[in-house]
């Protein structure tokens, strides 16, 4: 094909070596999925390899093998979760078996999975959402406390509830290999006014482009729980203890609070039917009860 260059001028750019191209491509491929997702995919692949070993089947993911795997796994875990297992298997095996995605989408596999869901699925058990009364209980209980960590916990709890944040956006994962500073909100992005506060969340789960969003906290001076007043109190205490630390959320130890740290606090007030996701679910429920259109919480 003989393509003639157009009249548009191109900026001067240097040519890369093959080694540089391969290196940069490797970095891009490594950033394609989150480390937590990659770890889950590895676990799913191990489950599939274990199935092949137990049943003396070849590792090649044919329609037959995948459909047998679906039936076997659906008798051990909730069939609705098998979808995510198949996604992990496809992701990890596609470079070795290019046809795996086609086999996954075949009628034999999809209908086998559909049948297992109808036959073996159990009712969904969701964690209970937090309520405004639950928040008020924690705020009133810790109101007289002079503990810095108590103030941090109640601020995280109320902020997550009011802004519909996920626990992973407020705290670090427990596993160090999944902890990344590119997801950490920074103190210098926080702006406080008399009626609101805002800060930058550099990365969130819904972002496919790796960009974050602006978190807005509105004051509720007439309410029983005022998220802005709590945030102001926390920031004053934080700046007094750690004036030179860049992170917004810091525990008394000077480290970013982890999920385990938050859950230990949560268990002091609520039973296991309340989880970290209960903040986001409760905040969305409260918005819907106040008359906000359901499409708005769903989009966040």
- In which order are the strands of the major sheet placed? 1-2-3
Structural class call reads mainly alpha
Spans of 5+ residues with little confidence (pLDDT < 50)? none
The number of E-state strands comes to 3
At the fold tier of CATH, the topology name of the largest domain is: hpI Integrase, Chain A
The DSSP helix count reads: 13
Distance between the termini: 48 Å
Shape: globular
Query: If you average the pLDDT, what whole number results?
Result: 90
Helix content: 40-55%
User: Into which percentage range does the β-strand content fall?
Assistant: under 5%
Can you tell me the CATH architecture of the largest domain? Orthogonal Bundle
| CATH superfamily label of the largest domain | Intergrase catalytic core
Count of domains: 2
Specify Rg, calculated over alpha carbons: 24 Å
CATH class of the largest domain: Mainly Alpha
**Largest beta-sheet characterization:** 3 strands, antiparallel
Q: Spell out the helices and strands N to C.
A: HHHHHHHHHEEEHHHH
GO molecular function: DNA binding
Keywords: DNA recombination, DNA-binding
InterPro entries: DNA_brk_join_enz (IPR011010), Integrase-like_cat_sf (IPR013762), Integrase_recombinase_N (IPR010998), Phage_Integrase-like_Recomb (IPR052925)
Write up this protein:
β1 (about 190) and β2 form a beta hairpin. By secondary structure, the protein is mainly alpha-helical. The chain contains 13 helices and 3 strands; from the N terminus they run αααααααααβββαααα. It folds into 2 domains: about 35-120, Orthogonal Bundle (DNA polymerase, domain 1); about 130-300, hpI Integrase, Chain A (Orthogonal Bundle). It has helices at about 20-30, 35-55, 65-75, 80-95, 100-105, 105-120, 130-140, 150-165, 165-170, 225-240, 260-265, 280-290, 295-300, and strands at about 190, 195-200, 215-220. The chain has a 3-stranded antiparallel beta sheet, covered by helices on one side. α2 (about 35-55) crosses α4, α3 runs parallel beside α6 and α7 (about 130-140) runs antiparallel to α8 (about 150-165). The mean pLDDT is about 90. The two termini are about 50 Å apart.
């Amino acid at each position: 094909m003989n393509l003639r260059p157009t009249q548009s001028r191109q900026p001067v750019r240097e040519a890369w070596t093959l080694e540089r191209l391969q290196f940069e491509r490797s970095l891009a491929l490594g950033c394609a999925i989150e480390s937590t997702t990659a770890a889950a995919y590895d676990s799913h692949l191990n489950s599939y390899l274990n199935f092949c070993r137990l049943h003396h089947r070849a590792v090649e993911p044919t329609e037959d093998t995948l459909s047998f795997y679906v039936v076997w796994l659906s008798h051990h875990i909730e069939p609705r979760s098998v979808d995510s297992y198949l996604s992990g298997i496809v992701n990890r095996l596609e470079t070795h078996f290019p046809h795996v995605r086609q086999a996954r989408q075949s009628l034999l596999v999809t209908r086998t999975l559909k049948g297992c869901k109808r036959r073996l699925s159990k009712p969904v058990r969701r964690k209970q959402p937090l309520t405004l009364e639950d928040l008020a209980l924690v705020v009133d209980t810790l109101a007289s406390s002079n503990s810095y960590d108590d103030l941090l916990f109640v601020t995280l709890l109320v902020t997550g509830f009011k802004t519909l944040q996920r626990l992973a956006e407020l705290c670090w994962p427990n596993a160090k290999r999944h902890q990344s500073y590119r997801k950490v909100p920074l103190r210098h992005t926080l702006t406080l006014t008399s009626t609101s506060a805002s800060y930058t969340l550099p990365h969130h789960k819904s972002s496919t482009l790796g960009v974050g969003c602006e978190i807005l906290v509105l004051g509720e001076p007439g309410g029983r729980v005022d998220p802005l007043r709590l945030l102001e109190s926390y920031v004053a205490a934080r700046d007094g203890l750690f004036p030179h630390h860049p992170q917004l959320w810091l525990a008394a130890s000077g480290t970013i609070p982890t999920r385990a740290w938050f859950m230990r606090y949560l268990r002091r007030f609520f039973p296991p039917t309340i989880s970290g996701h209960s903040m986001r679910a409760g905040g969305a429920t409260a918005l819907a009860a106040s008359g906000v259109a359901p499409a708005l919480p769903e989009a966040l």
